[in-house]
Specification:
Elements: H1 8-17, E1 26-30, H2 34-46, E2 50-54, H3 57-66, E3 71-75, H4 83-93, E4 98-103, H5 108-116, E5 121-124, H6 129-160, H7 168-182, E6 187-190, H8 197-206, E7 215-219, H9 225-233, H10 250-253, E8 258-262, H11 269-281, E9 283-284, E10 293-294, E11 298-303, H12 307-313, H13 318-324, E12 327-330, H14 341-353, H15 364-372, H16 378-393, H17 404-407, H18 427-445, H19 450-456, H20 461-470
Parallel strand pairs: 1-2, 1-3, 3-4, 4-5, 6-11, 6-12, 7-8, 8-11
Antiparallel strand pairs: 9-10
Bound molecules: adenosine-5'-triphosphate and magnesium ion.
Length: 475
């Protein structure tokens, strides 16, 4: 389940990059010795490179100012600015250009100095023609790899940090992710189903120094209890029936990367203790193994259940909870950031039609229904809705194409003008009384489960608790 297979396009690209010799690559030769310059121009020109030359570093810098080069082949000892000084300037102003030094007198110092200042490599004059060709080819290959790597990394980061939403709660979340990503601390992501917990876990990884190492995700509720330990920590051959060979677990696969433990609330109680031990001791043993294996893994856990309830019920270990919950990210439910709905709809519209929307993607009637719907399945439900509607109603989402559960949702209560008693009233006392009645009805209907009652009333748990306290209802 190693999600790092994402890097596979990389192999594809590199192989066809290097199939075609030196075509199109630009090389600049810098040497004060005319015969050497001419020789290199002919030699590398024959290899298919576009080659230019300069007799001194000053001219070379002029050329660099005019157009870009992939590689510079420069002598070290030259009158005026020497090769090392040229190297320094190139590194500063054209960091994407590789530099290969030619050293006439093989003094070790020259070579060491050049490498220290970022030269790709050096070659001592006189050199073997084949050796030079290989060195040039390797330097250019390494350059391609570097560029490709940067491109892929940007692409991945853009994709995985690809949250849509400009609401305040989302903006605060992005900032928090950015800040937290850099640290190695464990993170607990909580939020209802479909709010983007996995997206956040990936963003944490992609923005962390571990981004080039694996991101491994495991859903704790999807693996049978009996297999979970071996899944996480691996096993030795013969550890149990069916263990026909040594096998590394997810911790080993995620080494130096991030392990995402999704639905952590479903982790069996016994394994919670084992996980806690790994987090504390930073090492583990394979099932049936005696050797301790070091673990350098960042743990990101997620849950859409209320772990506080599980703590109280005793189904989740408190010590593990505090270990995981060094930093908590709360994914806001979609109904608390209604202003993001049009943006998300546009995003998913583009995803499913392959076209950017030129205007609004839904009719005003459809939008009215959508906006007042509470989306218990959050972004995932919205995404499914857009997919369904684009299939059913084409380029514009109509009211008729909305799923029945949305159409039958009562929506905001009809507000008819209210009559006020002739003698006047105490609005505050009246509203307080109404509020108290709604709070206790919700609690009753939800059998005293406060998180559910809060949800039922469309309130955040915080706000619900605050209201209970206000009326002394928080037992
Ligand atoms: N802010 C967002 N912008 C764009 N896409 C989003 C956003 N939030 C969620 N999504 C998309 O919605 C879907 C559900 O997100 P994700 O799987 O991360 O949710 P989750 O919180 O892990 O849900 P669950 O608890 O059900 O596993 C994914 O396709 C994800 O890409
Ligand atoms: Mg998920």
């Amino acid at each position: 389940m190693n999600k790092n297979a994402l890097f596979s396009p990389f192999t594809l690209h590199t192989s066809h990059f290097f199939g075609g010799g030196g075509m199109g690559r630009r090389i600049l030769i810098v040497d004060d010795e005319t015969s050497m310059r001419e020789f290199l121009v002919i030699l590398l020109g024959r290899e298919g490179y576009a080659v230019e030359s300069a007799a001194d570093a000053e001219t070379a810098l002029e050329r660099l100012g005019e157009r870009s080069f992939d590689l510079i082949l420069s002598d070290v000892k030259m009158p005026g600015l020497d090769g090392i000084a040229l190297l320094e300037r190139v590194k500063r102003s054209w960091p994407d250009t590789a530099v290969l030094m030619l050293t006439a007198y093989t003094t070790a110092e020259d070579a060491v100095e050049a490498m220290k200042r970022g030269a790709y490599d050096y070659i001592a004059k006189p050199f073997k023609v084949e050796e030079l060709k290989i060195l040039v080819r390797n330097a250019l290959e390494k350059l391609d790899l570097k560029k490709e790597n940067v491109r892929l990394r940007q692409e991945l980061r853009r994709r995985f940090s690809g949250f849509i939403g400009k609401s305040r709660s989302m903006t605060e979340l992005y900032l928090l992710i950015e800040k937290v990503a850099a640290s190695g601390s464990s993170v607990l992501i909580v939020g209802e189903s479909g709010t983007g917990k996995e997206l956040a876990a990936r963003a944490l990884h992609e923005q962390s120094p571990r981004r080039d190492k694996p991101f491994v995700a495991v859903n704790c509720s999807a693996i049978p209890e009996t297999l979970m330990e071996s899944e996480l920590f691996g096993h030795k051959k013969g550890a149990f029936t069916g263990a026909i060979a040594d096998q590394p677990g997810l911790f080993e696969q995620a080494e130096r990367g991030t392990l995402f433990l999704d639905e952590i609330g479903d982790l069996p109680f016994l394994l919670q203790a084992k996980l806690l031990r790994v987090l504390q001791e930073k090492e583990f043993r394979r099932v049936g193994g005696s050797e301790a294996i070091k673990a350098d893994v960042r743990i990101v856990a997620a849950s859409n259940r209320d772990l506080q309830v599980q703590l109280r019920e005793g189904t989740f270990r408190e010590d593990l909870f505090y270990r995981l919950n060094v930093i908590m990210l709360r994914m806001p439910p979609l109904r608390e950031r209604v202003e993001d709905i049009p943006l998300l709809m546009e995003h998913f519209f583009r995803k499913y039609t392959g076209k950017a929307a030129s205007g609004p993607v839904a009719t005003p009637e459809a939008l009215k229904v959508i906006i007042s719907y509470p989306f218990p399945g959050n972004v995932r439900e919205l995404e499914n809705m857009v997919e369904r509607c684009t299939v059913l109603s084409g380029p514009m989402l109509s009211r008729a194409s909305l799923p029945p559960e949305m159409l039958s949702f009562p929506g905001p209560v009809d507000l008819h003008p209210l009559e006020i008693p002739r003698e006047g009233m105490n609005l505050e006392a009246y509203l307080d009384a109404m509020e108290q009645r709604y709070l206790s009805s919700a609690l009753e209907q939800c059998h005293g489960v406060k998180t559910r009652a809060a949800e039922f009333l469309g309130l955040s748990f915080r706000s619900f608790r605050y209201r209970l306290a206000k009326f002394g209802m928080d037992d």
